[in-house]
Design brief:
By secondary structure, this protein is α+β, with helices and mostly antiparallel strands. It has two domains: about 200 residues, Alpha-lytic protease prodomain-like, CATH 1.20.1510.10; about 90 residues, Cation efflux protein, cytoplasmic domain (Alpha-Beta Plaits, 2-Layer Sandwich). It has a four-stranded mixed sheet, with helices on one face. α1 packs antiparallel against α2, α2 runs antiparallel to α5 and α3 packs antiparallel against α6. The mean pLDDT is about 80.
């Protein structure tokens, strides 16, 4: 089992723990804002389970039916996260509407507020672990979960302060206003997750710094060739695909051209983890004079 898979499994357990703390806090206070906080944690549980399944599928080796592998499975998990976040926001808006029509008093339970605070602290620590692990492993599913938890921490802190004020002042509708703000924050989080996930499904290129690294490696390792052009990159989960045309002298033996390709491939795969490089060799008549010059 990989470290990424272990983190994903642990994420499920922590999501259930946080959900339990927040739900008990809601029962002890009757706060709609705390209910919205607990509802967001239900989404966390569902998405953490989806992330485990997606990671398991994404690490399956390529086969005849899927020659490029299953790495994009993580993007589907991230899309599910985004959709569930939006559903949770709609559910919260419904509770706010009903509560506005018939406000209910809030119980100033110190134990309930303390439980919600403890859940927020756990999430704050855990979201850092998820985002760092996800970025290091280039896992969209873990990064999406971590980013969602980050917004959850911010909204939980605001809700905790607001509910305390509402309970002490008796201003019941402040609780509903806070719940509405939480829902808006959740919607924004869901939009960002969906946007990034759809970008991955549409084969977006690597970041500019990674592209610059790839160009530099080609220029340094293609000694004996003339130029490289039509460089293209795309990302699929943790995988990076690179392809380009390499122009060599027309009289260069096939074995020599192949050796240059091997050298470039080895350099890129060593510096860009989980990369797959495809090179199309062309004679000098195909040079375009606007590609990657060879050092």
């Amino acid at each position: 089992m990989t470290n990424t898979s272990r983190i994903a499994l642990l994420n499920v357990g922590i999501s259930f723990l946080v959900l339990g703390l927040k739900y008990v806090a809601y029962l002890m206070t009757g706060s709609v804002a705390l209910y919205s906080d607990a509802l967001e944690s239900i989404v966390n549980v569902a998405t953490s389970i989806a992330a485990v399944l997606a990671l398991r599928v994404s690490h399956k080796p390529a086969d005849a039916a899927h020659p490029y592998g299953y790495a994009k499975a993580e993007y589907f998990s991230a899309v599910i996260v985004g959709v569930l976040i939006v559903v949770a926001a709609i559910s919260i808006f419904r509770e706010v509407y009903l509560g506005w029509l018939a406000p209910t008093p809030i119980v100033a339970s110190v134990q309930g507020l303390a439980m919600n605070g403890a859940a927020a602290v756990i999430n704050a620590i855990w979201c850092v672990v998820l985002i760092r692990t996800g970025r290091r492993a280039r896992s969209p599913a873990l990064v999406a979960d971590g980013q969602h938890l980050l917004t959850d921490v911010a909204s939980s802190a605001g809700v905790l302060i607001g509910v305390t004020v509402a309970a002490l002042s008796g201003w019941e509708r402040l609780d509903l206003i806070l719940a509405g703000l939480v829902a808006l924050n959740i919607l924004w989080s869901g939009w960002k997750v969906l946007k990034e996930s759809v970008g991955g499904l549409l084969d977006h290129a690597v970041p500019d710094d990674t592209l610059a690294l790839i160009r530099a490696l080609i220029a340094a390792e293609a000694v004996g060739a003339i130029e490289a052009h039509d460089l293209r990159t795309r990302q699929a989960g943790r995988m990076t695909f690179v392809d380009f045309h390499l122009v060599v002298p027309g009289d260069m033996p096939v074995s020599a051209a192949h050796a240059i390709c091997d050298r470039i491939e080895d350099a890129i795969e060593a510096q860009v983890p989980d990369s797959v490089v495809n090179i199309h060799v062309e004679p000098e008549a195909k040079a375009k004079q606007h590609g990657v010059p060879v050092l």
